[in-house]
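Long-time lurker. I teach an intro course on protein structure, and each term I like to show students one example going from raw sequence to a predicted 3D structure in C-alpha cell notation. This year I'd like something fresh instead of my usual example. Would anyone be willing to generate the C-alpha cells for the chain below so I can use it in lecture? Attribution to the forum is fine with me.
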Amino acid sequence: MAKHNAANERIKREYFAFLKEAKGRDVATIDRVAQSLARFEASTRQQDFKRFHKEQAVAFKKRLGEAKNAKTGDQLSKATVQSILRDLKAFFEWLSREPGYRSHLSYSDADYFNLSDKDKTIARIPREKRVPLLEQVERVLAAMPADTVIERRDRALVAFTAITAARVNALASFCVEHVDLEYGVVKQDARTVRTKFAKTFETYFMPVCDGALEIVTDWVRELREENLFGPTDPLFPATLMGIGENGGFQPIGLARKGWASTGPIRDVFHKAFATAGLPYYNPHSFRDMLVRHAMSLDLSVMEMKAWSQNLGHSDVLTTLTSYGKVPPQKQGELVRASSVGESEGPTDREMLVYLQKRLGSP
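-- Reply from a regular --
Happy to contribute to a lecture. Here you go:
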C-alpha cells in the first residue's frame, strides 16, 4: 500500500485551507489536525476517505485506547485521545458536505468518533500540574553559566520568563523595542508578538526571583550597546552557526533573527534545570508559579486584578480557575489550619464577595 493516497492528500489540503481561511485556525492547530488525520490514515492503510465506514472508526478508537506515548512510553491519556477523535469528527462532518463525498458519507458517520460518556468524564479531569518553586528558579539562574553571549542569552531568557510569565510563542517573537526598562514593562503587541488570541496587553516586571531583573536589564543593555541591536531586532536571537576551528559547524554568536519555533526555548529550559540538578519545568509552568505566589500575598481585589491583567487575562476568574489551584499539600494545611482559626493565604472579604457575584452564589 502506498504511503500516501493522492485523493486524500488533495481533500486534506482543502480542509486545511478551510480551517485557516474560514475558521481562522492558527498553524499549530492545523498541524495538530494533520497529525490526527495521519494517525487515522495509518490505521486504515491509507484507504480513500470515500470508503470510510463506521467499523474503521470503532477499530481506530480501540487502537488509540491501547496506543503509547512515543516520548514517555505511557498509555495515551483520555484527554489526548479525545483531542484526536474530536479532530477526526470535525473533519468527517465537513467532508460529508463536500462535492464528491456527499454520496459516500453521511453527517452522522462522524458520531462514531465520539468517546463513551465515562471516558469523556475522565478526559475532563484536570491533571495535577508540576509547578516550580521560586527558590528553585533562583537556584537555576544561579547555576547557569554566563561566560559566552549565548549563555547570557539563555540565562536572560529564563530570568525574563520568571518575571513576566510570557508564553513561549511570545518569547520567540519579542523584539528589543518591546521592553521598556525605565518603566519596567513589556509591551505584548499582537501586531508583532505572537500572543495568544492575538491579544495586546502590557506586562510589568513582577517583583519575584532575586537577581532576575538585573539579569534581564544587563542583557537588554548588552544587546543595545555591545551588539548594536536596534528596536526591531529580536530580544532573544537565534544562535548563529559557523565553521569552527576544527572545520565543523558550531555556535559562533547571535543571529539577527529570532527563533522560528519554540523548540529551542524548551531546550534552554531543559538544559538550565539539568545544570541545577533539578527536574525539568517547562516555560508555561512559570505562569502557575507566579499565580500561586500572588495567592500567597493576601492581595486586595484590585491588586489581584492587576496580576491577572499582567498575565493577559481579561477576567480574574480565568487566572484563579486556570492557574490558581491550591496544591494538594497546601490544601490540607489550609483546611486543618482553618479548623483552629489559623488560616493562611488570601482572606480579603472583597474577593469573596466578588467571586460569589461572578459565580452566581447567594
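Some talking points for your students: The chain has 15 helices and five strands. The longest strand covers residues 249-258.
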